[in-house]
């Protein structure tokens, strides 16, 4: 579809979205590797903890079955006391806690009642995490009773499970900050280029314009020149060049705003445009509640905005159709200008792209017109501009909101 062709001469838009996908792809890859590796570690640690608890149960069973406990101290120290991380509760056969290890909440409890309550809660959690282990108590080979060992994952294992989430959040936050800094520095760089180019252009135009003005004066004084029409036309062109210079010099410096009659500024711009476009383009301007509406404008820049939007409209209608401009008083302190055309419209998916530099569907388009328009309205006038609505083959309406 022709509407999706980005301009090849200014391909910033396409490259930027490619770069975003590469960054996203690399981040997803890093995240998957990280989750996979953490899962492997969690699995290894879990099986180690399960083995430790199995040994714990065997030790308890072994100790209980020994008549002579003299050499048991060593085993007890090595296996039971050395467990400083896995929370364990040993109960009798009806589930009454007999002893516990590594549950800080139990150690902090003051009263036996409090202690019991905590142990009960812990037992429930433990039961939901792992099957308890059975310890068979024997005396002289005869079974005399049973005990159960309940346990849960060590805090290290629990923390390791959350590690990918923490790690991904940190990567995410870092990525977001990097993206913002990148965007900010890019915007600042673009800003410098715009301002620098505009200043330089205004400066360069200044000398030949002064010279042209002097030539016009010279010709005016020439009595031999019979066709005075030439001078009138020349003066108009010089005036136009002066206006272009003033636009560039306004873009290149901090522009001043003044309260101006919106209708009159737009009407002047349209009068100029009308002479330069096909007579098949009909312009209408309406103003509500009356044509005295004022807004804070930098006139040369605002004229440039209207000119750019109307030129796009003329292109979209292939030089045949209507451009209807409505100026309305919105809520207190705001004036809106709607510019509607009867052109080919913009596909919904393309609307977010039209303000990006370099986006153009025209053979000779630079894709800079609307970027400039947005910049003038938002940065210099502190207003807003957006596509109010657009329908394919019916037309498009742009809305500008200004402060009055
Ligand atoms: N009124 C409109 N109707 C349909 N499409 C539009 C309209 N206005 C803008 N567009 C689309 O938005 C694109 C970008 O517009 P923009 O003014 O930024 O660049 P351009 O007109 O292509 O080139 P330049 O203005 O730099 O000469 C256009 O190429 C066109 O596809
Ligand atoms: Mg344009």
Distinctive features:
404 residues, alpha+beta, Heat Shock Protein 90, 5-stranded mixed sheet, 4-stranded antiparallel sheet, 9 helices, 54% helix, binds adenosine-5'-triphosphate, binds magnesium ion
Structure description:
With 404 residues, the protein is an alpha+beta fold. The chain folds into 3 domains: 12-153, no CATH class; 181-237; 254-403, 2-Layer Sandwich (Heat Shock Protein 90), CATH 3.30.565.10. Helices cover 54% and strands 19% of the residues. The protein is built from 9 helices and 11 strands. The strands form 3 sheets. The chain has a 5-stranded mixed beta sheet with strand order 6-8-9-11-10. Strands 2-1-4-3 form a 4-stranded antiparallel beta sheet. The chain has a two-stranded antiparallel sheet with strand order 5-7. A hairpin with a 3-residue loop joins strand 10 (384-391) and strand 11. The protein is rod-shaped and about 140 Å long. The model is unreliable at 1-10 (pLDDT under 50).
* Rounded mean pLDDT score: 87
Distance between the terminal alpha carbons, to the nearest Å? 41 Å
List of distinct ligands in this structure: adenosine-5'-triphosphate, magnesium ion
The strand line-up of the biggest sheet is: 6-8-9-11-10
Under CATH at level 1, the class of the largest domain stands as: Alpha Beta
Q: What is the molecular shape? A: rod-shaped
| CATH architecture label name of the largest domain | 2-Layer Sandwich
- Largest sheet geometry: 5 strands, mixed
Quickly give the structural class. Answer: alpha+beta
The parts where pLDDT drops under 50 for at least 5 residues are 1-10
Taking all Cα atoms into account, the compactness measure Rg is 40 Å
User: What is the N-to-C succession of helices and strands?
Assistant: HHEEHHEEHHEHEEHEEHEE
Number of DSSP helices?
A: 9
Bin the helical content: 40-55%
Strand content: 15-25%
What is the CATH superfamily classification of the largest domain? Answer: Histidine kinase-like ATPase, C-terminal domain
């Amino acid at each position: 579809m022709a509407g999706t062709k980005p301009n090849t001469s200014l391909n910033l838009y396409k490259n930027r979205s490619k770069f975003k996908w590469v960054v996203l792809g690399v981040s997803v890859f890093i995240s998957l590797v990280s989750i996979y590796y953490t899962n492997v570690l969690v699995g290894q640690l879990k099986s180690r903890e399960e083995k430790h608890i199995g040994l714990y149960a065997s030790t308890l069973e072994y100790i209980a079955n020994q008549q002579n406990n003299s050499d048991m101290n060593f085993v007890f120290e090595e296996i039971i006391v050395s467990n400083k991380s896995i929370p364990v509760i040993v109960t009798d056969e009806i589930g009454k806690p007999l002893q516990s290890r590594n549950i800080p909440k139990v150690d902090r409890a003051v009263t036996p009642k409090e202690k019991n309550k905590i142990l009960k809660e812990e037992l429930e959690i433990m039961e939901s995490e792992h099957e308890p282990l059975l310890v068979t108590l024997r005396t002289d080979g005869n079974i005399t009773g049973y005990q159960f060992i309940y346990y849960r994952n060590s805090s290290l294992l629990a923390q390791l499970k959350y590690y990918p989430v923490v790690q991904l959040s940190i990567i995410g936050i870092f990525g977001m900050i990097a993206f913002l800094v990148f965007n900010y520095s890019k915007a600042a760089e673009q800003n410098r280029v715009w301002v620098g180019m505009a200043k330089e252009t205004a400066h360069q135009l200044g000398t030949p314009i002064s010279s042209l003005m002097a030539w016009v004066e010279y010709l005016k004084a020439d009595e031999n020149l019979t066709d005075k029409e030439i001078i009138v036309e020349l003066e108009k062109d010089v005036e136009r060049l002066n206006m272009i210079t003033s636009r560039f010099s306004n873009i290149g410096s901090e522009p001043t705003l003044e309260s101006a009659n919106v209708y009159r500024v737009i009407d002047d711009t349209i009068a100029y445009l009308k002479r330069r476009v096909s007579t098949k383009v009909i312009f209408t301007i309406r103003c509500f509640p009356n044509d005295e509406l004022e807004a804070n404008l930098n006139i040369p820049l605002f004229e440039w905005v209207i000119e750019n939007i109307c030129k796009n409209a003329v292109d979209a209608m292939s030089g045949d159709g209507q451009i209807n401009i409505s100026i309305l008083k919105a809520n207190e302190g705001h004036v809106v200008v709607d510019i509607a055309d009867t052109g080919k419209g913009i596909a919904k998916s393309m609307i977010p792209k039209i303000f990006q530099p370099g986006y153009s569907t025209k053979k000779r388009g630079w894709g800079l017109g609307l970027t400039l328009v947005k910049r003038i309205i938002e940065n210099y006038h502190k207003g807003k501009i957006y596509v109010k609505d657009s329908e394919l083959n019916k037309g498009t309406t742009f809305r500008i909101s200004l402060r009055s």
